[in-house]
Write a structure and sequence with these properties.
Blueprint: H1 3-21, E1 24-31, E2 36-42, E3 46-49, E4 58-61, H2 63-89, H3 91-96, H4 99-132, H5 135-141, E5 145-149, H6 153-177, H7 181-185
Antiparallel strand pairs: 1-2, 1-5, 3-4
Helix pairs in contact: 1-2, 1-6, 2-4, 4-6
């Protein structure tokens, strides 16, 4: 039944990288002289646009932030598939070899750290992207034009799921720790 945790981790990993890599937002401008322009920003978010407003070039590269976040999600997904296979097919090997639970623990620590750092980096990149595409700033720079931008709701949900993944992977460490030799040599007992 221990593999059920990894099924949840797998699902949340998929949701995190899918909402990020599938996100796009469109910035549209309408000027009083009749000129209309629009630009769609999408993964991997290397934004270099000077056409929306000549007085306010939109130059931003947060591709490394979001690519690290997506790579963490893909690695987590692949690791979940691997460890579920081990739990379902090779459980006796997992129980008999003391190195496997320790390796599982160490890899889970690494993925938890990746989730924290990836979510923090992507959160910073998303914040920069929201700031540079602020329609009030663009409208002030380009007098006579009004701008609208789509919703960042899907992007915000990817950030929430990213930090939730960190929490889930970190919480899973306790269950894996109980399988390691570290716990079996020195079990935690209550002194009541």
């Amino acid at each position: 039944m221990f593999y059920l945790i990894y099924i949840f981790l797998k699902v949340f990993s998929i949701v995190a990288f899918a909402t990020t890599s599938g996100f796009s937002v469109t910035l549209e401008g309408q000027c009083t002289n009749g000129i209309k322009n629009s630009e769609t920003f999408h993964y991997p978010f290397m934004i270099s646009n000077k056409d929306i407003c000549p007085n306010y070039p939109i130059l931003l590269n947060v591709s490394s932030d979001c690519q690290f976040f997506v790579a963490t999600g893909v690695l987590s997904f692949l690791y979940c598939i691997f460890i579920i296979f081990i739990y379902l097919v090779k459980d006796e090997l997992y129980q008999s070899r003391k190195e496997l639970p320790m390796a599982d623990f160490i890899l889970t620590v690494i993925l938890a750290v990746f989730w924290l750092s990836g979510s923090a980096a992507w959160s910073n990149g998303a914040s920069q992207m929201k700031s540079i595409t602020d329609v009030n700033l663009i409208s002030n720079a380009c007098k006579g034009c009004t701008y609208t931008i789509g919703s960042f709701g899907k992007l915000n949900s990817s950030l929430i799921v990213g930090f939730l993944n960190f929490f889930l992977w970190t919480s899973n460490l306790w269950f894996i720790y109980k399988e390691t030799i570290w716990f079996t040599k020195h079990p935690i007992t209550s002194t009541a």
